[in-house]
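To the team - 2-OXO-4-methylpentanoic acid complex, inputs and output below.
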Amino acid sequence: MPSQIKLAVIPGDGIGPEVVTEALKVLTATSVDVSTTEFPFGASYYLKTGTILEDSDIDELAQHDAILLGAVGGDPRDPRLTGGIIERGLLLKLRFALDHHVNLRPTTIFSGVTSPLAEPGAVDFVVVREGTEGPYVGNGGRIRTGTAHEIATEVSINTAFGVERVVRFAFAHAMGRERKKVTLVHKTNVLTHAGGLWQSTVDRVATEFPEVAVDYLHVDAATIFMVTQPSTFDVIVTDNLFGDILTDLAAAISGGIGLAASGNLNPSGEFPSMFEPVHGSAPDIAGKQLADPTAAILSIALLLSQFGETDAAARVNAAVEADLSTRGATARSTAEIGSAIADAVAQN
Ligand SMILES: NC(=O)C1=CN([C@@H]2O[C@H](COP(=O)(O)OP(=O)(O)OC[C@H]3O[C@@H](n4cnc5c(N)ncnc54)[C@H](O)[C@@H]3O)[C@@H](O)[C@H]2O)C=CC1
Ligand SMILES: CC(C)CC(=O)C(=O)O
Ligand SMILES: [Mg+2]
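Output:
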C-alpha cells in the first residue's frame, strides 16, 4: 500500500463536478494522506479542444494509484456529441485501457432510507459486472446505411479468459461474505453461445469453491426477483450489459440512483482502479445543486477499503448512514449534504 495515495480526479460533465467536490470534502475529512491531481476530460473539454483522451493522457493517469471520476456525457441535444462519443472515447476507453475487468457495485438499503419495496428485508448484495467485454467493446457496424435494408450489428464479445477471471473474482468475493452465494445472471435460453460459456465457466470454477452456493437466473427473471425478493441475492455475476442495467435497478430499489457507488477494479493492481458513482451526468439537474453526492461519497469509501484504509472507510459509511437516517422532508443542496457528511467524518 502506498504511504500517500496519488489520486487522479476527473470531475467530468453535468453533475460530475458537483458530486466530486463533495466527495473530495469527505476524503479530506478522513485525514487519510491523499494527493489529488485534477484532469479536465469530458464533453466540455472536448468541445473546447477537440481532444477526448489521448494515449499520453492514459499514460499520465496510469501513474496514479487510483482515479475518482464524477460522470461524463454532455448535452444530449448537441449534434457534436452524438454516438456516445464521450462515453465511448473517455469512460469505456479508460476502463478497457486500464483493464478494469471487475465493476463492483454494492447494494444495501441503509437504515432510514425509503425504498419503493414493500418488504425490503435485509438487502445486501453486490453485483460483479464484467467491465471490459460484452457488447460494449465496439465490435459491430452498419452497412447499407440510409436504405430500407440497413443492417446494424453490435457483437457481444465473451472470451474464456475474460469470463473466467470475473467469475473467479465473484467466487473469491463471495467467500469473504456471510452467505457465500453466487448467482449467475444471463440469458442462456436465448444467448446460447455466450450464455454457454458463462454457465460452463461458473460450473467449473464452482468446483473449486465447495462452500459457495451457486444459483442461476435468466436476466428477465432476475429483474422480478430483484424487486420482489431482493434479500435472496448475495453476489451476482454477470456480463457488462446486463450488469449495467441491473445496477440501475438495484439503485432504484435501494433508495435511488443518488446512493449507488461503484469501483472499476483492476484486481492485480497493474493499473489504477477507478471509483465512480453508478449514475451519469444527469443533464436534467446539472448546475442546480440538486444532485445527491452520496453515491460519489460512498465511492470514496470503496476506494479507501481498496487501499486497506478500513477504519476511514467505515467512518465514511457510518457518516453516510447517520446522514441518511436523519434526512427529512427538507431538501438540502448537494453542498449541504456533502458538508454534513464531511463534518460527521471529521468528528469521528
Ligand atoms: N459513468 C458515467 O459517466 C455515466 C454516464 N452516463 C451519461 O450521462 C448522461 C445522462 O444519462 P442518463 O441516462 O440520463 O442517466 P443519469 O444517471 O445521468 O440520470 C438518470 C436520472 O437519475 C437522476 N440522477 C442521476 N444522478 C443523480 C444524483 N446523484 N442525484 C439525484 N438524481 C440523480 C437524473 O437527474 C435523471 O433523472 C448521458 O450522456 C449518459 O451517457 C450515464 C451513465 C453512467
Ligand atoms: C455510459 C456507459 C458507458 C456506462 C454506464 O452506464 C455505466 O457504467 O453504468
Ligand atoms: Mg449505467
